[in-house]
Write a structure and sequence with these properties.
Blueprint lengths: L19 H7 L10 H6 L4 E2 L2 E6 L2 E6 L3 E3 L2 E4 L5 E5 L2 E4 L2 E2 H22 L5 H14 L1 H5 L7 E6 L4 E7 L5 E4 L2 E4 L3 H11 L6 H18 L15 E6 L2 E4 L2 H14 L2
Antiparallel strand pairs: 1-4, 1-8, 2-3, 2-12, 3-13, 4-5, 6-7, 7-9, 9-10, 10-11, 13-14
Length: 265
């Protein structure tokens, strides 16, 4: 079996299983990060900051600010932190940006690989568990300060409701029933969401509360980037429901951001 650039898999390579990562490991092609302790502490690496998710009556809304920081400096103002994982789930990233984005890409490939091999979509619970495994695999890097902590949400096609999961740095997976957040401004965002959450929220109302929570977090957390209407920088917002994953309407996000900013003057 020929691979890219004329490479071939070993004769004894196993047949592909449902895990793409396991296949790579079986042929010695799994990606590896090796960074010495001294190098890790001296690197200047962009960090993604605040992301959150909030349930509404028919699904989940995920949102993230657009700022990445390097120490006390702004590294990027337009970074994307919320990604569609597949047709009915999304993942948001906080922590070391480069490693986090690569983790998301591997997660997307894993879900597609599973569907092709097994002929069916992995359950939402299975997706959440597999993401926990990817986080746990990064533990040696986390001990060196290169931490990735994602947020995962999706629409459970079996239970017909939105569900969301938070993680810790060692791969612990926790289902949240109302809302969740991770990143530097997560405590501020959750404090705001705690005061406005209702289980009967509509999708538009949930988008509004998610954007307002990011504005509240940015008010006191310098690493969280609030909406910048002059530059046209708006939060990255996705809506997940029975119809699938979609970007929230940009005009609606801009209107909510404007209202939230005016309320804080």
């Amino acid at each position: 079996m020929s691979g890219p650039f004329g490479q071939t898999l070993p004769i004894g390579a196993p047949l592909p299983g449902s895990s793409f990562t396991d296949l790579l490991q079986s042929v010695g092609a799994a990606p590896r990060w090796e960074v010495s302790d001294s190098a890790a502490t001296s690197l200047s690496i962009p960090e993604g900051t605040t992301v959150l998710a909030i349930r509404f009556a028919d699904g989940v809304v995920m949102a993230g600010d657009r700022r990445a920081t390097e120490g006390h400096l702004v590294a990027h103002r337009y970074i994307q932190k919320v990604f569609a994982a597949d047709g009915h789930s999304a993942v948001a990233i906080a922590g070391t940006a480069g490693i986090a984005v690569e983790m998301v890409r591997l997660f997307q490939v894993e879900l597609e690989h599973y569907e092709k091999i097994e002929g069916t979509v992995l359950s939402l619970e299975g997706k959440a568990n597999f993401l926990a495994r990817l986080v746990r695999n990064q533990l040696p890097m986390a001990f060196q300060g290169l931490v990735v902590v994602p947020l995962f949400a999706g629409y459970d096609l079996h239970e017909r409701r939105g569900r969301l999961f938070t993680y810790d740095v060692v791969g612990g997976r926790y289902e949240e029933h109302d809302f969740g957040a991770t990143g530097s401004g997560s405590r501020l965002a959750k404090s705001y969401l705690r005061t406005v959450f209702r289980p009967d929220l509509t999708a538009d109302e949930a988008v509004g509360q998610a954007v307002s929570a990011l504005v509240a977090a940015a008010d006191d957390d310098t690493a969280t980037g609030g909406p910048d209407l002059i530059r046209g920088i708006l939060p990255n917002v996705m809506v997940i429901d029975g119809e699938g994953v979609r970007e929230a309407d940009e005009e609606a996000v801009a209107g909510t951001a404007r209202t939230a900013l005016e309320a804080r003057r």
